[in-house]
User: Fold these one by one.
Assistant:
Number 1:
Amino acid sequence: MYLNEQINKGATSLREVFCYLLDSQGNIIRYHGDFITKGLLQGNKSVAELLPDQVLKDFYRFTNDFDTRFHCSLQVCFDNEVLEVNCCFSKNGDGTIELKGLMDENVESNNLIPIDKLPYPIAVVKKSGEINQLNRPFIDYFIEDKVFVKPLFIQDIIKTNILSPERFDYRKMIKTDANSRAVLCHYKGAENNQTFLLNLIPVNGSDETLYMASIKDLTQFIEVQQNLEDQNQELCRQVQEEFELNRSYELELLKKNRLESLGEIASGIFHELNQPLTHLSLKIDNMLESWQRNEVTEEYLRSKTEQIQRQIQRMRGIIDEMKQFSCIPDSRDEMVDVKTVLNCALEDVSYCYVAGMILVVNQVADVTIKGTANELEQVFVNIITNSIQSLRQKQTVDKQFKPKLEVTIKKNEERVTVVFIDNGLGASQKELENVFKPFYTTKKDVGGTGLGLFIINNLMRKMNGSIALEAEEGRYFKTTLSFPVVEN
């Protein structure tokens, strides 16, 4: 039933409060009405300056379709009241459009509560959170426009302050305690930064239970909130001090873990150093025999000295590598070449490779991440060392076993991944669930401390990376490291 039909049938008494004549583009041609003369809906140049965005979208859609009428309901803030105006858009034969605002002044609703004259913000809210009724002070505090469209939801309008002891949650409040409250803050321009107290009071309506949201000013308690903020800053300072202490403890753990890794490859280092030492011993013995036979010439001495010097340089290089690996440098983010660090890690542990081990390395060029090269190398060394230990233990049991370790570096648009997979002892599902816990180890008999994967996990987080494990007991163990791509 259209509004003009309601008027003809005498169903209600409506007063025309404004009328606009528009062209098809929404430009205002003429206007009249008491809402206009009182300054509420002034005669602007375009309907876009009068209507809320929701109604404006429907208006433009209406101008392009075949309907002759379009209706909507507006809430208008007028003096100390909030009035509901029924709007009717109708097309004329000459292509113009009439916009009439009609207001019912006689019909009373049993669901309305007389809150218009109250001096503080009040809203009547349905159980769903939809605002059924509100007064002028509520609009002044929380709604930017003086003309708006329902439905409005209180959860969307009221935003809590960062200093609030709890966040406003309408549904939670009505479920737990109807008289519960929340401190909140509304920012409506630089001059209006106030803190309020919200109370929800149940009101029995004719059809459903409504809640009256009563809001009172708590600005005088801002000083108390500021004191709480000062205390919070002091607590942050204490937390920072505690963090620094924990950081020093973490560095000690890293150093301990590196020394453990060195212990794992110590036997290989001894073997590597023993070879140049044997060469040196043989060269010196040979030189003594030649001297006793008076066969020492200047050319002979130069040749032997150069050979001895090369063996000394070889031993010095091995020692320097281990010294560099055992140091804990400052953790400063840098652009790290993953391929270079992986090759260094493989060289570090080459002294303890399993006999007959097949090493497969699949690499792509120009793969960089943001992190610390030394810490990334420690991650790689720990993972490779774990694989070598697993391969060695399986080889001890099965002499026909062919150990294999495969390392693959991949890169896509979003992530860099480094995958390590070995065919060693693997792990059970229960072991996978616990491996990142500190001091959890399945290798106590060989000196394991359970800190390796725990430290690796922490280092990966520092580099904004992640670690994922996959294994099958007796068959394989797969470790996937993932890092965000960094644009060069």
Note: The radius of gyration is 40 Å.
Number 2:
Amino acid sequence: MPNVKCDHCQNEFEINLKTRTIERDIELAYFICPNCKHEYRSFYTNEKIRTRQDKIKELWAKARRTLNENKLKQIICRIDELVEQNKEEMSRLRERYEASN
């Protein structure tokens, strides 16, 4: 993974993505600058999002095995729908949990 530069101390480091539970089924993915310890919040997930992520992985595996062009288009269309649903849900979670900070 490429290095990133901390906005606070300018230290370059490799991202070590971590997760922690915020409440019930809400998880935060984040990383920390090893030099100044500034926390960067990447994204939030809930059970619905994680279930969709698993379904997306299954669909990509199915797409790689699919020889029928029309079936492949249907699978990719479904993947796009699930990705869009996840983006919307993640945005709602970010607004909810970062507005309270």
Note: Residues 5 and 11 are 5 Å apart (CA to CA).
